[in-house]
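Write out this protein's structure.
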Amino acid sequence: MNAPPPSRTFSDRRRAARRRARLKRYALAGGLAATLLAAATVWLLIRADHGVPSAAGAEQFLDHMVAAAGGVAPPPSPGGPVFHVERKSNGQIVVTAERVPPGPCVSAGWKLVRRGMLSINGITPTRVSAARLADLCNQSDSATVVWIPRPPE
């Protein structure tokens, strides 16, 4: 006759419980590592300046926007922003820049919003912050910036 299987001893159960706890810790550590890796990847993709030096590109973009508001739209450069200037019937000037890289968009946008109304990718933020500008400018590889300068006082 077959003998019944021996019951598990206390030490066997404790060893099994420790093993399950260890496996849970490994799974948690693996999940945490994967989350950190994904967050670092997203951060690096957002921080990419797409080949345009951020400070120089932002100042140059700001100068072009101000010049365009004065009626002189800069000629399009290969791979750079394309500027359009429109004068409304009430005398209001609307400057549109297409294909603006995220770095200059955020930096110059911060300065442009203080000089008039700014819209990025069709969204005009009611509360402007650096984080909100970064979100709007980083929605894709390039942004469309519309700026309506304040009329001179």
